[in-house]
C-alpha cells in the first residue's frame, strides 16, 4: 500500500468553532478505520479527526486524550452523537496506557496530532502567541510552571539551552543573559517583555519570523512536548495489535525528526552498531513505514486553512 495517491476517502466536514482538523483524508487512509477496533486519538483537540474516524466506520471505537480542559469540552460536545463508542480522559498522551488500562496489542490504530490548536493560538489569555501584551503562560494543562516562571527562575545556561535546542537560535546565550539581566529590574510577565529583550539582542525590530521560534521554544519547554513524544512513541507502538497503525502529524522539524528516527529504526531488521561482527539485537523489523517521505497537505487545504501548511504526516504499521 502506498499512501498519498488516489485518495478516495469521502471528505468529512471537520471544521468547528474550536479547530479545523488537518489532512483528514490522509489520516483516514492511513488508519483504515473500516477495519474496526479501538483507536487512540492521543491529542483529541476539538474532536475533528475523531469525528471523521467514527463517521467512517460504525465498527470503530475511540479513546481520546488531551491536557486542555477547553479542548476536552469541545470534543465531548462534538462526539456526543457517537455515544458509548467514545471515551475521553484528561492527561498527557504519554500516559494513555495507564489512563485507559491498555494492554499489549489493544489498539487498531494511534493518531498523534502534535502542536497547538488554532483555538489555543487565538486565545490571547492562554499566552501561546507573540501578539503584543499577551501573558507569558503557554500551559496546555493550566498546571505547572508557566513561560514567565521559566524566564524568571531558570539560570542563564538553562534558558540558553531552551532557546538553542528548541528554537534553534544562534544567539541563544546572548538572549538568555539579556533575560537574566532584565528580570533583575522587573519580572517577565507579558509578551512585550520578551520581545523587548529580543530587540535589545538583535538590535532591530523583531519580526514574526524572529519571534516565532523563540516563543515556540518556550512552549515546548513549558509543556515538555518532546519528552512526552519520546516517551509515548515506543509505549504506544507496543499497544498496537499486529497490523495496527500509528499516524503522527508533526508541525516542526524537532518533532518530525524524532518520529522519522523512531519509525525507521522500528522498520530495520538489525539495529546493532556497524562495528559488531554479528547481530546481537532483536534481529527482525518490528513493522514497516507506510510512507518513505512525509505527506504534506494539498494546495487546496493550505489555501483554506493556512495553518496546515507546515503539517507533515508519517505512518507506520506494526508487523504480524
UniProtKB/TrEMBL annotation:
Pfam families found in the cross-reference section: Methyltransf_5
Origin: domain of life: Bacteria
Keywords: Cytoplasm, Methyltransferase, rRNA processing, S-adenosyl-L-methionine, Transferase
GO process annotations (BP): rRNA base methylation
SUPFAM superfamilies the record matches: Putative methyltransferase TM0872, insert domain, S-adenosyl-L-methionine-dependent methyltransferases
UniProt cross-references to Gene3D superfamilies, sorted A to Z: Putative methyltransferase TM0872, insert domain, Vaccinia Virus protein VP39
Top-level EC class as recorded in UniProt: transferase
GO molecular-function terms, A-Z: rRNA (cytosine-N4-)-methyltransferase activity
One Gene Ontology cellular component annotation held by this UniProt entry: cytoplasm
This enzyme's EC code(s): 2.1.1.199
Annotated localization: Cytoplasm
Residues noted as binding S-adenosyl-L-methionine in the record, renumbered to the chain: 47-49, 66, 93, 113, 120
Catalyzed chemical reaction(s): cytidine(1402) in 16S rRNA + S-adenosyl-L-methionine = N(4)-methylcytidine(1402) in 16S rRNA + S-adenosyl-L-homocysteine + H(+)
InterPro entries (alphabetical): RsmH (IPR002903), SAM-dep_MeTrfase_MraW_recog (IPR023397), SAM-dependent_MTases_sf (IPR029063)
Coiled coil regions in record: none
Record-stated family: Belongs to the methyltransferase superfamily. RsmH family.
Function noted in UniProt: Specifically methylates the N4 position of cytidine in position 1402 (C1402) of 16S rRNA.
Protein name as annotated: Ribosomal RNA small subunit methyltransferase H
Source species of the chain: Candidatus Kutchimonas denitrificans
Amino acid at each position: 500500500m502506498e499512501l498519498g495517491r488516489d485518495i478516495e476517502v469521502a471528505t468529512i466536514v471537520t471544521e468547528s468553532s474550536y479547530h479545523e482538523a488537518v489532512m483528514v483524508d490522509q489520516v483516514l487512509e492511513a488508519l483504515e478505520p473500516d477495519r474496526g477496533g479501538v483507536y487512540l486519538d492521543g491529542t483529541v483537540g476539538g474532536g475533528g479527526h475523531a469525528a471523521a474516524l467514527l463517521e467512517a466506520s460504525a465498527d470503530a471505537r475511540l479513546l481520546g486524550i488531551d491536557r486542555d480542559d477547553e479542548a476536552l469540552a469541545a470534543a465531548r460536545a462534538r462526539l456526543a452523537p457517537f455515544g458509548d463508542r467514545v471515551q475521553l480522559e484528561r492527561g498527557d498522551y504519554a500516559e494513555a496506557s495507564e489512563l485507559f488500562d491498555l494492554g499489549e496489542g489493544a489498539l487498531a490504530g494511534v493518531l498523534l496530532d502534535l502542536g497547538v490548536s488554532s483555538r489555543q493560538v487565538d486565545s490571547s489569555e492562554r499566552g501561546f502567541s507573540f501578539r503584543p501584551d499577551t501573558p507569558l503562560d503557554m500551559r496546555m494543562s493550566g498546571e505547572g510552571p508557566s513561560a514567565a516562571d521559566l524566564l524568571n527562575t531558570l539560570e542563564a545556561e538553562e534558558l540558553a539551552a531552551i532557546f538553542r535546542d528548541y528554537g534553534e537560535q544562534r544567539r541563544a546565550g546572548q538572549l538568555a543573559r539579556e533575560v537574566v539581566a532584565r528580570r533583575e529590574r522587573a519580572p517577565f510577565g507579558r509578551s512585550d517583555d520578551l520581545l523587548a529583550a529580543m530587540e535589545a539582542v538583535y538590535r532591530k525590530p523583531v519580526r514574526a519570523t524572529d519571534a516565532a521560534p523563540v516563543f515556540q521554544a518556550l512552549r515546548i519547554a513549558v509543556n515538555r512536548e518532546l519528552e512526552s513524544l519520546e516517551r509515548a512513541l515506543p509505549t504506544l507502538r507496543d499497544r498496537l495489535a499486529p497490523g495496527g497503525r500509528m499516524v503522527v502529524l508533526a508541525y516542526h522539524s524537532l518533532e518530525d525528526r524524532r518520529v522519522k528516527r523512531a519509525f525507521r529504526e522500528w522498520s530495520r531488521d538489525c539495529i546493532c552498531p556497524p562495528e559488531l561482527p554479528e547481530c546481537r539485537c532483536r534481529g527482525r523489523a518490528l513493522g514497516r513505514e507506510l510512507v518513505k517521505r512525509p505527506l504534506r497537505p494539498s494546495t487546496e487545504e493550505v489555501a483554506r486553512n493556512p495553518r496546515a501548511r507546515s503539517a507533515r504526516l508519517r505512518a507506520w504499521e506494526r508487523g504480524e
